[in-house]
Design goal:
The chain is an alpha/beta fold. About 35% of the residues lie in helices and about 15% in strands.
Length: about 650
């Protein structure tokens, strides 16, 4: 407060001066002070509260000179204005105001009525009149445009904000129709998903027609599939034992393939489907006078008579054939025959030997549609009767061959659902074979001819070997770890490695019985010796190889492509496998073939009624016979001297 200090010094100086004045001057000074007091009192009257302004008497603040402000500060005692009525003064004295209220009023006065000596000087507002004047002149120069009213159609449209339902109430407030539509959509998704995943597996390149959307795959998935087809099946192992091949008395012997085929023809009522490598049921050339050829001739005549009985006959045969006389004969009798040129599609042949009768009865095995397969070649197969569950699955494999035999047919990228597997390694059929529960599935080769969900023939064989715990017995015409007909040839140890692992790592007994005849591929014996040597010290792997030779007379040796063990099966302590393919890579990647896998491990071990026990007995009969020769024996070398051994 430097200004107030200056004024204080000034007043003190003035008082000192007045003390030196004369009395006359003092009187004048008193008069002046009284006059100034009147002016101050007059200024104080303006501060009396009024209804218009409770704090000030007027909304206007009277101007007070700086000199008067200084003199007001000098006064120590407040001066009561004379205009205040005495009654009001008495009331104020009698009822003094509360201290707290006074303080609040004083605080309000301090906030509202700041002394001019303390408050900052007001900043003068800029004069906007020149600017407004220039804007007015500019507006007068602009032409006036008539105001146009905007129509409703010209107004911008904004998206309507929908009210977001509260959480937990949307489902409750949904109408009933919405619930029904949602339920129908969910059911549709489940049905289509099941059809794609469990049925065909992948979408075909072209959408499958409605007529091909068969739901037969449910038989292999649904627990109650036994009620939809015949599951109480009768299974019979059938064999062809060449004339002159003798076994000791009491050795196992089964029904002949010839009699089984005759019975199937007698059972036929509606249809017979046959897939074959070739048809030579009638002997030709030098063999026409062969008395054992009569059985094949009778089978051909029985097939030709089916049309006269109102039974449809379909034949899918590999093409080209060396002789089409038998198939032409069947066409003349009313049969439908299609040649499958698999050589142009996969580079292989149709090596399948399959019968399906009325969609209920089945034959599958190693025997070709050849008169020699009934009397001059050692064969093995299975016949199942009253077994529509399995027959329907094999019908689909036949359907693949029938489709490829059509004019201009090609292998589709994805097989339609009509060719989907009804059984597989993951989903076997649950059947009753001869009164014993069994899990059965069908395999196929090559992979390019496998419908959706079908287990390949090679995978089935490897799975059976890996599943064995005690023994693996194999009887096959050719066992060759090569791709024989590849150019160039390549080593293919897939099956051989599994047998080595089973014998050397798991201690499983492996017996391999391979055939020897004039058409044996000589390098095969070298590969077999590499397996047989594993049983020697220090490895001592439980693996052994023998060669089976069918004896032949001089006259029998003249019959071409005969006198050979043509079996293609495998049996372990848990599973039985019967197929139609030789065991080399060509037959699994290019050539068409079929396999049947039967698992009856739920039955008592060694039960004579199981397929596994019957097939084991057949193998042991052959293994222990005089016709099974050790590798390197002179009798093995003799069979290679025949014509065609090279």
């Amino acid at each position: 407060m430097p200004r107030r200090a200056t004024e204080t010094r000034r007043r003190s100086k003035r008082l000192n001066q007045t003390s030196d004045l004369e009395p006359a001057d003092a009187g004048e000074e008193v008069a002046d002070s009284e006059e100034e007091g009147k002016q101050v009192a007059h200024s104080k009257e303006s501060m009396i509260p009024t209804p218009r302004n409770p704090i000030r008497a007027s909304s206007r603040i009277p101007r007070i000179s700086r000199k008067e402000e200084d003199e007001e500060e000098e006064e120590e005692t407040p001066v009561v204005p004379r205009t205040i009525p005495k009654i009001l003064v008495e009331k104020i004295k009698v009822n003094p105001p509360v201290v707290e209220e006074v303080e609040e009023v004083e605080m309000e006065e301090e906030e509202v009525d700041t002394p001019l000596s303390v408050a900052p000087r007001p900043v003068p507002k800029p004069d906007l009149r020149p600017t407004m004047s220039s804007l007015q002149k500019l507006r007068e120069k602009l032409p006036e445009r008539p105001e146009r009213r905007i129509s409703r159609s010209e107004m911008p449209r904004f998206p309507v904000m929908q009210r977001i339902p509260q959480r937990g109430k949307a489902w409750k407030d949904a109408p009933r129709s919405w619930w029904l539509c949602s339920l129908a959509l969910v059911l549709l998704v489940l049905v289509l998903g099941g059809w794609l995943l469990v049925g065909p597996g992948t979408l075909p390149r072209t959408w499958v027609p409605v007529k091909e959307l068969k739901m037969d795959w449910i038989y292999s998935v649904w627990p109650g599939q036994q009620e939809t087809c015949q599951d109480h099946c009768s299974l019979t192992l059938v064999e062809s034992i060449p004339v002159g091949l003798l076994y000791p008395k009491g050795a196992p012997r089964h029904r002949s393939i010839y009699s089984a085929w005759e019975e199937l023809l007698e059972r036929a009522n509606r249809s017979v489907d046959v897939a074959a490598y070739y048809f030579t049921l009638r002997a030709r050339g030098q063999s026409e006078e062969e008395p054992t050829a009569s059985e094949g001739r009778r089978i051909l005549e029985g097939l030709g008579a089916l049309s006269s009985r109102g039974i449809r006959l379909k034949v899918a045969v590999n093409s080209p054939q060396e002789s089409a006389e038998d198939t032409d004969y069947l066409v003349e009798k009313g049969a439908e025959v299609r040649g499958v040129w698999l050589q142009n599609l996969t580079g292989g042949i149709v090596h399948t030997k399959l019968w399906v009768v009325d969609g209920q009865h089945v034959y599958l095995g190693s025997a070709n549609m050849d008169w020699r397969s009934l009397t001059q070649v050692k064969e093995l197969g299975v016949v199942l009767t009253n077994c529509s569950c399995l027959a329907r699955d094999l019908e689909r494999i036949f359907g693949v061959y029938w489709y490829l035999g059509g004019q201009g047919a090609s292998i589709p990228r994805h097989w339609p659902a009509a060719y989907a597997a009804l059984s597989s390694r993951q989903r076997p059929l649950h059947l009753t074979l001869n009164g014993i529960d069994a899990r059965v599935y069908v395999s196929s080769a090559p992979p390019s001819l496998c419908g959706p969900g079908r287990t390949t023939d090679l995978d089935a064989i490897l799975d059976v070997i890996d599943d064995a715990r005690e023994f693996v017995f194999i009887s096959v015409m050719d066992f060759l770890p090569l791709c024989k007909f590849c150019n160039p040839q390549r080593y293919w140890p897939t099956i051989e490695d599994r047998l080595r692992m089973a014998a050397c790592e798991r201690g499983v007994t492996v017996h391999l019985l391979v055939s020897c005849w004039p058409h044996t591929y000589a390098p095969m014996l070298v590969f077999l010796e590499a397996l047989d040597v594993l049983q020697k010290e220090p490895l001592k792997c439980k693996i052994e190889v023998k060669i089976f030779r069918v004896p032949a007379t001089a006259e029998q040796e003249k019959i071409p492509f005969s006198r050979v063990n043509h079996n293609k099966y495998m049996v372990t302590d848990r599973i039985a496998y019967v197929g139609t393919s030789n065991w080399s890579e060509d037959y699994f990647i290019r050539t068409a073939g079929v396999g049947l896998v039967i698992n009856q491990t739920g039955a008592d071990a060694g039960s004579p009624g199981t397929v596994q026990s019957q097939l084991k007995a057949i193998f042991q009969r052959d293994w222990d016979s005089d016709h099974a020769l050790a590798l390197g024996s002179e009798r093995v070398k003799e069979c290679l001297k025949w014509k065609g051994s090279q």
